[in-house]
């Protein structure tokens, strides 16, 4: 009887803790990268090559869902209640496809499906997408790299790497995500700005 009473007291204590502290459950807020698609230009004359874009790679911690912050260069922190609604790699891959289509360098731009039926393959890596809270205040850092490979030869015909950092004027999580959107758009434009127009006419 005494053991049963002790167990009941313990259970009531746990329930009190869970229902106390304000009495409300906290639910995560979800965010997404809002990267607008550029308008498609008229088809360029002489463009006859196709390219397929692989899904971007990233470090494992960028794929876990929570938005990331750093208080030191060595420490990675996660916002428990502020999460990505979709994998950032998927969003960045889609944005790159849209930009390549709009650039007019290729007659066809598609998602890579593993088949060697395109002239080129675009492979990229999202290396940083995080809030940084040390040194000169709160800022956002985005880093990515990419390369284009010619399917027929396996040769790398283009590569580039970019890093963008911008201060966060509105110091809360929505403000951080808003600046991540702007910084990501800048990084993608900078990354793709050096893709040679001549690739479109080479076979």
Describe this structure in words.
The structure is a single chain. Helices cover 27% and strands 31% of the residues. It has 203 residues and is α/β, with parallel strands linked by helices. A hairpin with a 5-residue loop joins strand 3 (66-70) and strand 4. Helix 2 (88-103) packs parallel to helix 3 (173-192). The longest helix has 20 residues, at 173-192. The radius of gyration is 23 Å and the shape is elongated. Residues 1-22 have low confidence and may be disordered.
Give a quick set of tags describing it.
203 residues; alpha/beta; 8-stranded mixed sheet; 3 helices; 27% helix
Overall outline: elongated
Give me the number of helical elements. Answer: 3
Major sheet characteristics: 8 strands, mixed
Rg from Cα:
23 Å
Low-confidence blocks of residues: 1-22
From the helix content, strand content and strand pairing, which structural class follows?
alpha/beta
Topology, number of strands: 8
**Could you tell me how far the N terminus lies from the C terminus, measured between alpha carbons in angstroms?**
85 Å
Give the SSE string. Answer: HEEEEHEEEEH
- Average residue-wise pLDDT: 86
Query: What share of the residues lie within helices?
Result: 25-40%
Kindly estimate the percentage of residues that lie in beta strands according to DSSP. Answer: 25-35%
List the helices and strands and how they pair.
Blueprint: H1 2-19, E1 29-31, E2 50-53, E3 66-70, E4 76-84, H2 88-103, E5 108-111, E6 120-132, E7 139-150, E8 156-167, H3 173-192
Parallel strand pairs: 1-4, 2-5, 2-6, 3-6
Antiparallel strand pairs: 3-4, 6-7, 7-8
């Amino acid at each position: 009887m005494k053991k049963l009473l002790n167990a009941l007291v313990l259970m009531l204590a746990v329930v009190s803790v869970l229902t106390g502290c304000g009495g409300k459950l906290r639910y995560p807020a979800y965010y997404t990268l809002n990267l607008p698609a550029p308008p498609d230009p008229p088809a360029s004359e002489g463009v006859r090559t196709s390219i397929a874009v692989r899904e971007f790679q990233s470090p494992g911690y960028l794929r876990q869902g929570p938005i990331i912050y750093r208080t030191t260069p060595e420490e990675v922190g996660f916002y428990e209640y502020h999460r990505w609604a979709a994998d950032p790699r998927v969003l960045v891959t889609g944005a790159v496809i849209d930009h390549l289509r709009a650039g007019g360098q290729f007659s066809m731009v598609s998602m890579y499906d593993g088949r060697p039926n395109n002239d080129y393959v675009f492979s990229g890596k999202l290396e940083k997408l995080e809030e940084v809270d040390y040194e000169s205040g709160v800022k956002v850092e985005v880093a990515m790299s990419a390369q284009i490979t010619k399917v027929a030869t396996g040769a790398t015909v283009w590569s580039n790497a970019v890093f963008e950092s911008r201060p966060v004027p509105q110091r809360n999580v929505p403000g951080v995500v808003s600046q991540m959107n702007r910084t990501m758009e800048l990084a993608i434009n900078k990354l793709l700005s050096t893709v040679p127009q001549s690739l479109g006419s080479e076979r």
